[in-house]
């Protein structure tokens, strides 16, 4: 019984499993029932499953049959309707065929026209495409033609800009055309051609400004004498930096009243050139011709004489081509070479002032150009480069001036050279160059100038002393008297009261020497002008030079006159009188120097004049010469003594030599009467020393009686 129950349970379980498998087969895609069927075949109830499967199939067939029976009448009706539609469709087909045949017959011409229209549309499309391509190519060809025209008219910087547009904007749009490939291959050659031509223009420019730098410098230095520019030039050395700070404003703005043009930078010039349609010739690269503009109201500046466009063009061209550094190095190297040529002075420069002037003009012209390049380009030259060139120029210029100025023996030439150096220094100072060393060198030239003045005045004094008659100046009228007093500071109340004609105690060389000393002082003052020296320095310079004139030059001239072999007692006595009056005039010379320098004599470190000592020494030398001459003359008379030692009758007649000696002494005393009172006593004392040996001679006393 238990087995029966177990078999029954297993049968129920198998039936449930088979039912599940059938549901799975019904609900699963046929492509995926393989595993399900495998489980059936793997089991032991295959036969029972097949029976169940057959039963399920029969059930489904019955359901299908029921459904078909239910819809059969509708199916029959549909077939009937379909047969009716087939007849109507056949009629419609026949109508469509007939209509198509008629349409084909009627539209045959239209088809032909449509074919022709199709061909026309195709041609039109091809033409339109061709026009579009030509529109792309025409700008390229126009730009290339413009490029060739610019190259032909030597407008190289615009040509380079055109080439850049052509290469980067136009050619990429039509790069597949063969002629564009030819253009692309030709672009590097065009760049090199532009580069070479611009460099050639630059070389012409450099050669031109080298030849005409003296003209540029001459114009700049002439502007230094412009009254509107003078206020900028006359500034002390300690204000050089302040002047440099103002230079940028001066260079960027037109000077009031001077009608000078402001600087144009490179970019302004090239904006104007690129925007212009007219070709610009570059054959005049360098110096512009301004002779035809003399009637113009505007006065061209030094920079206006130069056409800097070749430099700007070449700079921009090389910048665009990526070779700016190469251009900068070349430009600086060439300008350094030109600087060395400019700074080489001619061998005969010292002979004339024009030699110095041309030398200075070339230097000024060189640095005016460089200063303009510095302010109108961005980095072509920099301040360090300019300072380096200026240091070299300053050292070479000073060395050249020291060498050549040492050959100058004419004080007028030295003075003109000084004025030229001052103008040279002041002109360059306006452009911001330090010139203190030039003014220091002028102090050296001042000493040389003093030496040349001393040599010149030595000749003047020698001529005055040689041409003097060593006689008191006769005065026959009030006019002549005032003229002499106007030339020499002399005051004598007794002489003024005397009627005309009358005489001054001194000879003509006194007022002449006095006036020449004043002329010497004026000459020294001229050299000190514009040296930016203080009044004390000028006063000290004049006094030292005047002392040299008195103690060396004038003293030497007086000593030479006194030591002459043929000098007479009258001349020596007049020299004593003259030196006495010149000694008294020294205080007036002191006042004269004080008046022109505005420095009081009481000022500390003020040099005093040594004129008193000079004239005292000359007077003592004259007195010594008188002593020597009298001694020699008396010795000559005594050597003529011839006594008759055998005669017994002395008589009352003196010896002949005593008669001559007494006459000589009488004339000598007459000469001494012209001396001042203090000098008469000295002269009598000297003569008494000579006559003491004669007082023991009886004939001498007898003759005196």
From TrEMBL:
Coiled coil: 82-109
Pfam families xref list: EXOC6_Sec15_N, Sec15_C
Domain of life: Eukaryota
A Gene Ontology cellular-component term: membrane
Biological processes, Gene Ontology terms: Golgi to plasma membrane transport; intracellular protein transport; vesicle tethering involved in exocytosis
Region: Disordered, residue numbers: 269-296
Start and end residues of each Exocyst complex subunit EXOC6/Sec15 C-terminal domain: 437-690
Chain ranges of the Exocyst complex component EXOC6/Sec15 N-terminal domain: 52-221
Keywords: Coiled coil, Exocytosis, Transport
PANTHER family in the cross-refs: EXOCYST COMPLEX COMPONENT 6B, SEC15
Family assignment from sequence similarity: Belongs to the SEC15 family.
Function of the molecule: Component of the exocyst complex involved in the docking of exocytic vesicles with fusion sites on the plasma membrane.
Protein name (database record): Exocyst complex component
């Amino acid at each position: 019984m238990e087995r029966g129950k177990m078999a029954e349970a297993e049968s129920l379980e198998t039936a449930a499993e088979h039912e599940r498998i059938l549901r799975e087969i019904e609900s699963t895609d046929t492509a995926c029932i393989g595993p399900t069927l495998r489980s059936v075949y793997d089991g032991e109830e295959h036969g029972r499953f097949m029976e169940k499967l057959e039963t399920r199939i029969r059930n489904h067939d019955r359901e299908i049959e029921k459904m078909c029976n239910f819809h059969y009448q509708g199916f029959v009706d549909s077939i009937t309707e379909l047969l009716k539609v087939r007849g109507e469709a056949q009629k419609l087909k026949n109508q469509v065929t007939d209509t198509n045949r008629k349409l084909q017959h009627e539209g045959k011409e239209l088809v032909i026209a449509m074919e022709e229209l199709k061909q026309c549309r195709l041609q039109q499309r091809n033409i339109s495409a061709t026009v579009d391509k030509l529109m792309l190519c025409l700008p390229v060809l126009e730009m290339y033609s413009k490029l060739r025209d610019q190259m032909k008219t030597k407008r190289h910087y615009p040509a380079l800009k055109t080439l850049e547009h052509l290469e980067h904007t136009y050619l990429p749009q039509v790069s597949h055309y063969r002629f564009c490939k030819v253009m692309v291959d030709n672009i590097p050659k065009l760049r090199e051609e532009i580069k070479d031509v611009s460099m050639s223009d630059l070389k012409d420019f450099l050669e031109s400004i080298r030849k005409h730098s003296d003209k540029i410098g001459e114009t700049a230095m002439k502007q230094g004498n412009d009254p509107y520019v003078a206020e900028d030039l006359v500034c002390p050395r300690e204000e050089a930096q302040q002047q440099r700070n103002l230079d940028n404003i001066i260079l960027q703005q037109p000077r009031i009243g001077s009608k000078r043009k402001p600087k144009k930078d490179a970019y302004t010039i090239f904006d104007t050139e690129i925007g212009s349609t007219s070709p610009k010739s570059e054959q005049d690269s360098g110096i512009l011709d301004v002779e035809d503009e003399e009637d113009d109201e505007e006065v061209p500046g030094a920079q206006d004489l130069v056409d800097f466009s070749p430099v700007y063009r070449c700079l921009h061209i090389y910048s665009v081509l990526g070779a700016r550094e190469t251009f900068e190095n070349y430009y600086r190297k060439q300008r350094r070479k030109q600087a060395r040529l400019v700074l080489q002075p001619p061998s005969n420069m010292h002979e004339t002032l024009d030699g110095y002037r041309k030398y200075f003009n070339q230097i000024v012209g060189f640095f005016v150009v460089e200063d303009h390049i510095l302010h109108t380009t961005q980095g072509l030259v920099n301040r360090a480069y300019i300072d380096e060139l200026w240091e070299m120029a300053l050292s070479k210029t000073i060395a050249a001036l020291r060498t050549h100025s040492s050959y100058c023996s004419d004080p007028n030439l030295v003075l003109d050279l000084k004025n030229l150096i001052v103008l040279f220094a002041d002109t360059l100072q306006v452009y911001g160059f330090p010139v203190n060393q030039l003014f220091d060198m002028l102090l050296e030239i001042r000493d040389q100038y003093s030496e040349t003045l001393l040599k010149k005045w030595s000749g003047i004094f020698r001529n005055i002393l040689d041409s003097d008659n060593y006689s008191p100046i006769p005065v026959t009228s009030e006019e002549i008297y005032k003229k002499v007093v106007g030339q020499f500071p002399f005051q004598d109340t007794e002489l003024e009261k005397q009627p005309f004609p009358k005489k001054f105690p001194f000879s003509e060389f006194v007022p002449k020497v006095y006036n020449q000393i004043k002329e010497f002082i004026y000459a020294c003052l001229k050299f000190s002008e514009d040296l930016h020296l203080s009044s004390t320095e000028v006063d000290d310079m004049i006094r030292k030079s005047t002392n040299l004139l008195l103690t060396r030059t004038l003293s030497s001239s007086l000593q030479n006159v006194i030591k002459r072999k043929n000098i007479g007692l009258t001349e020596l006595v007049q020299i004593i009188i003259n030196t006495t009056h010149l000694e008294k005039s020294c205080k007036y010379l002191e006042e004269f120097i004080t008046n022109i320098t505005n420095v009081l004599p009481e000022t500390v470190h003020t040099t005093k004049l040594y004129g008193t000592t000079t004239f005292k020494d000359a007077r003592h030398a004259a007195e010594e010469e008188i002593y020597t001459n009298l001694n020699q003359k008396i010795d000559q008379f005594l050597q003529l003594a011839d006594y008759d030692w055998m005669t017994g009758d002395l008589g009352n007649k003196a010896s002949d030599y005593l008669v001559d000696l007494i006459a000589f002494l009488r004339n000598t005393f007459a000469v001494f009467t012209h001396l001042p009172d203090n000098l008469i006593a000295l002269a009598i004392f000297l003569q008494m020393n000579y006559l003491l040996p004669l007082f023991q001679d009886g004939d001498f006393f007898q003759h005196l009686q």
